[in-house]
């Protein structure tokens, strides 16, 4: 199984266009919004979430570019962890694909139909299938999902759906046995997550914030915003990591000090047994 990190930042990317915090005006490496490509054979690829940066991400990743035929593409489908705009807005940019299967939790499928009508817009281009994430069928990979949060996007607050609104995915290579867990949004360390990640070769974790009070200190935002935003800070997950899997953090917010490779927080993550990979990093499992 090949896993390529197309983007590793939270919504807005890094640096964020409307922010002049110390990090956003620094020389820290830029990052696009969170998205992953995975393949069992290196020919057919599936996207885990679809960021608004997807066009640039595809063009920067040779295995995902069109060809050899003039309209041949290697994309085979999309798996959504949630309905947040930074994870689903890129679907609109894939409208020329001629149709792809999209798997997502039922609440997410409903939100993309009733609250933010992406489905009706994209369906106008034909050939799209919208399927529950409990029934993912991916070539060469065995996929399961774990509900991890009931946090719904702001635009879907009026939705009557109960959730789950956010899931993590576990992908197992049928041939090699390699296991990849993708969990970019964790409100907490949920029940069953230790078993879900057991025997995994790579676990990609929510690294949105380093500490609970980070946003208020970096941008003068309201204190205590992180819990309401549905993200477990790195300080709440790092101590839970155990030997075995390769642990890596993604979905880094522009305020997160780990973005700076010279920061003590970056060093603390590495000392804690995890990594902070950049856009374009590839893993083979």
Describe the 3D structure:
Strand 3, helix 1 and strand 4 form a beta-alpha-beta unit. The strands form two sheets. The chain has a seven-stranded mixed β-sheet. Strands 7-8-9-10-11-12 form a six-stranded mixed β-sheet. With 285 residues, the protein is of the alpha/beta class. It has a single domain (2-284), classed as 4-Layer Sandwich (Metallo-beta-lactamase, Chain A). The model is unreliable at 222-226 (pLDDT under 50). It has helices at 54-59, 85-88, 106-115, 118-123, 193-197, 214-219, 225-229, 234-237, 264-271; strands at residues 2-7, 35-39, 45-48, 75-79, 101-104, 129-132, 141-149, 166-173, 179-183, 202-206, 246-250, 274-275, 282-284. The chain is built from nine helices and 13 strands.
Low-confidence stretches: 222-226
Q: What proportion of the residues is helical, as a percent range?
A: 10-25%
Helix-strand sequence:
EEEHEHEHHEEEEHEHHHEHEE
Q: What profile does the largest beta sheet have?
A: 7 strands, mixed
Radius of gyration, taken over Cα atoms and rounded to an integer in Å: 18 Å
GO biological process, one term: pyrroloquinoline quinone biosynthetic process
Keywords: PQQ biosynthesis, Transport
Domain Metallo-beta-lactamase: 45-238
Protein name: Coenzyme PQQ synthesis protein B
Task: Please outline the helices and strands.
Layout: E1 2-7, E2 35-39, E3 45-48, H1 54-59, E4 75-79, H2 85-88, E5 101-104, H3 106-115, H4 118-123, E6 129-132, E7 141-149, E8 166-173, E9 179-183, H5 193-197, E10 202-206, H6 214-219, H7 225-229, H8 234-237, E11 246-250, H9 264-271, E12 274-275, E13 282-284
Parallel strand pairs: 3-4, 4-5, 5-6, 9-10, 10-11, 11-12
Antiparallel strand pairs: 1-2, 1-13, 2-3, 7-8, 8-9
């Amino acid at each position: 199984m090949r896993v390529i990190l197309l983007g590793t930042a939270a919504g807005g990317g890094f640096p964020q266009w409307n922010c002049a915090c110390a990090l956003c005006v620094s020389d820290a490496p830029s990052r696009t919004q969170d998205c992953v490509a995975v393949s069992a054979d290196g020919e057919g690829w599936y996207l885990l979430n679809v960021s608004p940066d997807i066009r640039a991400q595809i063009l920067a990743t040779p295995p995902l570019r069109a060809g050899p035929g003039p309209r041949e593409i290697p994309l085979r489908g999309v798996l959504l962890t949630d309905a947040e705009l930074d994870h689903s807005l890129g679907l609109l940019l894939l409208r020329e694909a001629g149709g792809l299967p999209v798997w997502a939790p039922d609440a997410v499928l409903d939100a993309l139909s009733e609250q933010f009508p992406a489905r009706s817009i994209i369906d106008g281009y034909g050939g799209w299938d919208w399927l529950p994430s409990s029934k993912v069928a991916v070539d060469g990979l065995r996929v399961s999902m774990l509900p991890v949060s009931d946090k719904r996007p702001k635009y879907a607050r009026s939705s009557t759906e109960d959730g789950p609104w956010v899931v993590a995915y576990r992908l197992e290579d049928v041939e090699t046995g390699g296991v990849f867990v993708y969990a970019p949004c964790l409100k907490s360390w949920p029940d069953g997550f230790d078993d879900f990640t057991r025997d995994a070769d790579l676990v990609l974790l929510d690294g949105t914030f380093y500490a609970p009070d980070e946003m208020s200190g970096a941008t003068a935002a309201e204190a205590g915003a992180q819990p309401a935003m549905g993200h477990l800070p790195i300080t709440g997950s790092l101590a839970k990591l155990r030997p075995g899997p390769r642990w890596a953090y993604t979905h880094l917010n522009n305020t997160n000090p780990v973005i700076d490779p010279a920061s003590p927080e970056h060093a603390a993550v590495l000392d804690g047994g995890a990594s902070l990979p950049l856009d374009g990093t590839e893993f083979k499992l």
